[in-house]
TrEMBL record:
Residues 250-526 form the Helicase ATP-binding domain. This is 3'-5' exonuclease DinG. 3'-5' exonuclease. SUPFAM superfamilies: P-loop containing nucleoside triphosphate hydrolases, Ribonuclease H-like. Signal peptide: none annotated. It is an enzyme of class 3 (hydrolase). The keyword NAD does not apply.
Length: 936
């Protein structure tokens, strides 16, 4: 690599402080600095500084710096001249430079010195852009991922050194980028933090002069550099395409690849016999963790795919999809020598639309900072990706407005400059050629008639215990009147009231002003009609079968359809008028937009932004029109009683804050249609039965008429060696205040010897309370504490848990069963309470009311079997494979005091040890030591 920055000295600085707000008597307690010359660390500095105040407990926990460490140190006035001298004529670098530099300057000015005016660079933004697919840009996570060694994270000297190596790695990475990518990055970078853009412009200018040719692995389309999309060379089969009937033959094939396990081979043989039997349509398989269920069903179906039929595998999560495609299928091909091809199938919106992305770069004015950084990340990512699947970016949310412009709409893109390299169309082509297609439950439910599945395809529904609920979720929708009201208000502002509104720019255009006046009247009529619909819905509030006031002040009211939409009621007629008005507003706005495009040359310089925003509001009006048609179809339909409705009132006293949601309560017809499309369907899960009985699963999956065959697999390892289950018998009642105190005491006192702890709860409000109680406890200072609803999305929490050396998750809902921790594993799972669903949840109450109306026991037919399956899944978070060991602790005394407790005990795969609160800590502390002795 060239030494582009040979003339520059970088001073990479990290400060530890008593707090983040410098004006509130917070001061520096450690100054760390690493000097970089010629892309090497040549010197480091570390000063402990007396802040003349106590160091807060949270800071001590984070940094490991205590009051006694600084009480005899010199104060800042002593070090200020040294720091100024160190930083003289250097480029100031920090990981979040807008904290370190202002804080340091504040201290300097307070002590009578001039503020530093050095060029300043931020390594957070640099790392995000240079390494766009990393899951986290916290310094400790970056240094782990990039294998940067520094001994004491959160100490200023160690963090400064780590940041210095990060700076060097980042610059080296940017230097490898193609020239056109560097040029675009340089042109976009002017709005980055402080002088961070200087890095990009310096590298781009240097290589522009050397005129580097484009490397062979790249291609350029317009200003965008992409990886070449070459078809993979044909792989010819090394093995027989005939299923190995003899177990001895299977054993030979497995040798050197995976352990031969009789339980797994038994499962393979049962599946194979099912697939070959023309009289069978469906099979239910319970395959405990450790059975190797994924490899088993892939192996069983693989040999039937040479007749041109495809295997479709549907999973609930992207994580499981990635695991199947990245690990299980490659292992299958290695073992069998078959030349099958596999592809993921997901919505087009996961793929980048290159036309939309280029338009966002050159036609959108100056974007906000998050959008700018995201655009620069994507530019770099495009030089790396072969799929264009934006999930590779590992973002924890996709809410940035940019994604509405760059997500692929799913059309053929014929005639586009990027049509030959369009990622979505290339993905469809690969899917058509594939033998195995891996998708998710929701996508399958909404696209089961897609031609991509081929003729008479096989289907495996993995984690099948969740399939019905996922189909239901995919059918749920809403008409959010308040949001539509907001769209209309924003549209009026763009057309009439902002300084550069259409009306203000064309005061003399008679035709346009006539159109604007006409549209304004209709928008006001539409808003009035929205209010009428809201009042009509709100007037039924006393007929709700359930009401639930949320912590954010929203009121949820649950309704059966007949209570909200009585026969011959006025709502449907008013909804029809609403639809007509909405369509008129949409058409009239389109007409005005067309007129403005014709007059574009006479508009202000910001006209592109205004026209783009008006077009965006039209798209949103289309969206609300579609939802209103869906609602009208539901109310007019014969299956209205299969729907449940929820009013979400954001201000319980105001009818005009009413919004409508609907949920499908009975998806039996939808399930039947899905099953009709596929052949030899295998439903597989680790938890398909309730006490070895498939009746609940057969009923829930609507399989009675298919007369499915059933099979319960055996685990391939000894659970007694891998799992210990402890149930505390003397816990207070789960609903008491005393329980909460004991529960919190257990967390801060009894679990400290563990590394990765999952605490499963049943109530999000209680999670907030527990998090607040434990987050700053010094005993837990080594743990990253993550809480559902407080620490970002569930996906982000799972990623943080996997990255951290020691972590605690407080989770409910999907953390019982929907999230895997393959990379980090879990040492300890604590079930705070037995996982009965709260009847306050609208969807739960509506579902249970439907069961009541059928004169069935809600507890026996819904609450208990659901809780037992979720409970078994909770245990399954702990032991995922033959190398996992751990403890499962139950803190709900109802296990022993209620009749249904024995049903949960029966569901536990090992003997449950009944202990007291006092015994718990010793059992947890000694487990790993005892296990280590047992295994050796």
């Amino acid at each position: 690599m060239s030494d582009i920055f040979a003339k520059n000295t970088f001073a990479v600085v990290d400060l530890e402080t008593t707090g983040t707000q410098k004006e509130r008597d917070n001061h520096i307690i450690q100054f760390g600095c690493a000097i970089v010359k010629h892309m090497k660390v040549v010197k480091t500095y570390s000063f402990m500084i007396n802040p003349h105040r106590e160091i807060p407990l949270s800071v001590q926990n984070l940094t490991g710096i205590h009051d006694e460490d600084v009480k005899n140190a010199k104060d800042f006035s002593y070090y200020a001249p040294k720091i100024i001298d160190i930083l003289k004529d250097t480029v100031f670098v920090a990981h979040n430079v807008n904290f370190d530099l202002p804080f340091l300057n504040y201290e300097l000015v307070q002590h009578g010195y001039e503020a530093l005016t050095n060029r300043a660079i931020d390594t957070v933004e640099l790392a995000k852009i240079a390494f766009p697919t990393l899951p986290s840009y916290k310094l400790s996570d970056l240094t782990d991922r990039l294998d940067i060694k520094h001994l004491n994270p959160h100490k200023a000297d160690s963090d400064a050194y780590g940041t210095a190596i990060l700076l060097i790695d980042t610059i080296r990475q940017l230097e490898t980028l193609p020239q056109a990518t560097l040029n675009t990055l340089s042109s976009l970078s002017s709005s980055l933090v402080r002088d961070t853009s200087w890095i990009f412009s310096t590298i781009a200018d240097y290589y522009r002069q050397s005129k580097r040719p484009l490397s062979k692995e790249f291609m350029q389309v317009r200003n965008i550099i992409l990886q070449k999309q070459e078809d993979e060379s044909e792989v010819f089969s090394k093995g027989s395409s005939h299923f190995p009937q003899e177990n001895k033959k299977k054993k030979e094939m497995f040798k050197g690849h995976l352990h031969y396990r009789k339980a797994q081979v038994d499962l393979i043989n049962h599946l194979h016999n099912f697939i070959l039997d023309p009289n069978e349509k469906a099979m239910l398989v319970e395959a405990p963790n450790g059975t190797g269920k994924t490899f088993s069903y892939l192996f069983s179906y693989a040999y039937q795919l040479y007749s041109g039929r495809k295997l479709v595998v549907a999973t609930p999560t992207n994580v499981l999809q990635d695991q199947i495609l990245g690990h299980e299928i490659p292992q299958l091909l290695e073992v069998t020598g078959l030349d099958l091809k596999a592809e993921v199938v997901k919505s087009s919106s996961h793929y980048i639309d290159l036309d939309g992305f280029v338009q966002s770069l050159f036609n959108n004015g100056t974007p906000n900072k998050p959008t700018l950084v995201l655009q620069m990340q994507i530019l770099v990512w495009l030089t790396q990706t072969k799929t264009g699947d934006m999930d590779e970016l590992q973002l924890t949310n996709y809410n940035n407005q940019l994604f509405t412009q760059i997500s692929h709409p799913g059309d053929a893109r014929v005639g586009s400059r990027f049509s030959s390299v369009d990622f979505w169309n290339l993905a469809r082509k690969r899917q058509e050629e594939a033998d195995i297609l891996v998708t998710n439950h929701a996508y399958l439910a909404n696209h089961y008639m897609d031609t991509i599945w081929g003729q008479n395809p096989y289907l495996v529904i993995d984690e099948a215990h969740r399939f019905t609920d996922n189909v239901i979720s995919s059918r749920n929708d809403a008409l959010r009147f308040e949001s539509l009201w907001g769209v209309l208000s924003h549209l009026r502002n763009l057309l009439y009231y902002s300084n550069d509104s259409a009306q203000n720019q064309f005061t003399d255009d008679v035709e346009l002003n006539f159109l604007l006046k006409k549209l304004n009247t209709k928008i006001l009529e539409l808003i009035y009609k929205i209010n009428e619909l809201q009042k009509l819905l709100y007037s039924h509030k006393d007929n709700a079968i359930n009401d639930n006031l949320l912590p954010n002040g929203n009121l949820q009211l649950s309704f059966q359809s007949k209570e909200l939409f009585p026969k011959n009621g006025p709502f449907l007629a008013e909804l029809t008028k609403f639809e007509q008005l909405l369509e008129e507003v949409r058409q009239d706005t389109n007409q005005i937009l067309f007129k403005l495009y014709q007059e574009q040359d006479n508009l202000f310089s910001s006209s592109d932004d205004i026209l783009s925003e008006i077009a965006e509001q039209i798209d949103r009006l289309d969206y609300y029109a579609e939802k209103s048609y869906q609602l009208a179809d539901l109310i007019n339909g014969k299956e209205l009683e299969q729907e449940g409705f929820i009013l979400v009132v954001t201000n319980p006293e105001d009818p005009l804050s009413t919004n409508l949601h609907w949920i499908m309560l009975d998806v039996n017809d939808e399930l039947k249609q899905i099953y009709d499309r596929f052949d030899h369907i295998c439903f597989v899960s680790a938890t398909m039965t309730v006490n070895d009985n498939f009746e609940y699963a057969i009923n829930k999956l609507n399989l009675e008429k298919l007369h499915p065959i059933t099979y319960i697999g055996k685990s391939t390892f000894d659970f007694k060696r891998h799992l210990q289950v402890l149930a505390v018998k003397d816990m207070p009642s789960p609903d008491s205040d005393e329980y909460e105190k004991v529960f919190e005491k257990i967390i801060v006192s009894d679990i400290l010897t563990k590394d990765h702890i999952l605490i499963l709860m049943t109530n999000l409000d209680k999670i907030r309370d527990v998090f607040s109680a434990i987050v700053n406890d010094p005993k837990l200072k080594d743990f990253e504490i993550l809480a559902q609803g407080l620490s970002g999305s569930n996906q982000r929490i799972a990623k943080r848990f996997g990255i951290a050396k020691k972590a605690i998750i407080l989770g409910a809902d999907s953390f019982w069963e929907g999230i895997d921790f393959h990379k980090s594993g879990v040492d300890l799972v604590i079930a705070a309470k037995l996982p009965f669903e709260s009847p306050d949840q609208p969807e739960v109450r509506l579902r249970q009311k439907r069961i009541e109306d059928l004169n069935l026991s809600v507890f026996q037919n819904d609450s208990l079997p659901r809780a037992i399956i979720r409970f078994r899944q909770g245990i399954g978070r702990l032991i995922r494979g033959e190398h996992d060991y751990g403890q499962f602790v139950i803190l709900d005394s109802r296990l022993w005091s209620k009749n249904y407790g024995k049903d949960f005990i029966t569901a536990i795969p090992v003997k449950t040890e009944k202990i007291t609160i006092k015994e718990l800590k010793g059992k947890l502390d000694n487990y790993d030591q005892r296990r280590h002795k047992t295994n050796h």
